[in-house]
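Q: Hi! First time asking for a complex rather than a single chain. Here are the components, and I think there are two in total. Is that enough to go on?
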Amino acid sequence: MARIRFKSVTKRYTGDVIAVKDLDLEIRDKEFVVLLGPSGCGKSTTLNMIAGLEDVTEGELWFDEQIVNALPPHRRDVAMVFQSYALYPHKTVYENIAFGLRMRKVDGAEIDRRVRDAAAKLEIAHLLQRRPSQLSGGQRQRVALGRAMVRQPAVFLMDEPLSNLDAALRISMRAEIKHLHTAMQTTFVYVTHDQAEALTLADRIVVMKDGVIQQIGNPDEVYERPRNMFVASFLGNPAINFLEGIIARGGEGPLFRCGELAIALPAKFAAGLRDRGEQAVVLGLRPEDVCAAEAAGQGLTLAGVVDSVLPVGSDRFLGLKVEGRDVFVRVDKEARHQEGAAIRLGLVAERLHLFDKASGLTLAGEGAS
Amino acid sequence: MTAMPTTPPPAIRHYRAHSPLRRVGRGVALAVASVLFVGYVLAPIAWLVSSSFQNEREIISKPPHWIPDVPTLANFSAIFAAKDKAVTYETRKSADPASGGFIPSTATNLLPAMLNSFVVACAVVVLNLLVGVPAAYAMAKIHFRGRQASIYVILATRVIPDIALVVPFFLFIRNLGLLDSLWSLIITYLAVTVPFSVFVLVSYFESLPDELDKAARVDGCSRLQTLLRVYLPLARPSLVAVILFAFLASWNEFLLALMFTQTPASQTLPIIVASFTSDFTISFSFINAAGVLAIIPPVLLALVFERYIVSGLTAGAVKG
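A: Yes, that's all I need. Here is the structure of the assembled complex.
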């Protein structure tokens, strides 16, 4: 049971390197929060501060009703899973899992019960007498999870726990971690740079860049209504397409213009565009947000030339040249396109994104909230 | 069926094409080189051991006898019996040098000096570990201000030759009133050995992943517990290297011991053995027997820790 609150927390390393800047964040009890961002964005530092492994330079860190700035890690009720697993090489699997309990002077019989319980759940019961060097990567990962599980901590921290696993194992472990969260009913904070992992696991995603939070929201919010261009580009695979252009006034309403291309902008941008003259903007178009040209409304079509055809089994992607720029779209799997052929595609008005070019912020009123 | 290729297959390269003769020749050359090297290294020790079982006359015989004709334990018994004999200028010739019973005037001091050496070496080893291990852990794993600087300062002290430190050490020891005390040796040997121990341990601790440190602390260890329960068991090879280094450095040290010790109360083995060569007369048989006793403790130590030595010596050389 723990609610974690950051109040204007800044982390500065020697040499005045700022890892985290003025962070305000509340992680609710039993919530699964994913800190997402590229390397060096401060997400791991944030996690280490929760664990107590890094000092808070400025600001306050609260666990429930207690300031924990000065509390060393062994006094905080947290457990952590590391990217490299960090198993103790000189101990058996059993002792690795039991170590945290032994340090907390848990009764021997209770330790044994919990270790065997966790091992059974993680399907590593037959490995208990082995040493970490005798295990595969996936097995080590399970031991690391087990070591954290048996502690029954108030806060469960994970620092890119799946990034050393191969792709197939990563996906199955994602599901297991999700089950673990449901079963343990405790607060999870999970750090990753993998947007798919974040979207799969999180109750809420905290997108960070350069030590500053870019957006906090549930996976749908962050994906559908990114606050700025960074968030829009960081989530989604293949990444969102950006087209630079200007706003022009058409008969029906504002138009996005990029060379010959003119796209009628939906009403959701009206508020953001009001009182603005002709200005440089960036249109964001996710690869999956296109449809047949006939199905789209007036002024909502995109004309281009097929530059490349990329089937990936379940889907088919096209690389287009639109006004000299590369645009990547997902099309019907059955569709047949020739490279070099002209193509017209429809756009889904409600799914278009528009950003101010200078600030990178969204021009959609609701997304900005 | 497709047509067989008409071009001949490329000649198969025989990686073991060298003739058996060449291979044997290579083996012989290696063996000879090894024997020469081992002989070069071990010959003095073999002679030391062999001559310690010879009497004075046999030692100086030509050609020398590598295997004693008349092996004798008289040299060793003379060491242990030395207590009962007082040798003065007048009585110096009372024993026959050729019998091995001839002993130097300072012979009585040999066993106490061995004990002194042993006490000093053990104390230096223990204090090296007590000081070096926490220092190295802190430097390797705690990112405090001035960490890099402190590592460089410690390394820099290793560049200063001992002889340059003799006078400051002497003044320091004299002002502390520790001249002719074992403490003078323990303190100065620590100053010489601790930097190297810390250096070896820092490199080793740095090669152990930081995440182990984090995992242990999240698992409930304080810094000290992390060090004791996680790092020490993993650092065993480097600990052995430190133990051996500190022990041998103290056991063999001559210069500082010569400066600070004046009486048998604090004189160590190298000082006493050296004094045998400047006595009324010189007994090689006795000196060599003393030499054999002097190498026994380090050899035993090396045998005990043998399997850790190689990995300990290379510890920290390669990270990962």
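A: Residues 23-52 of chain B form one domain. Let me know if you'd like any chain examined more closely.
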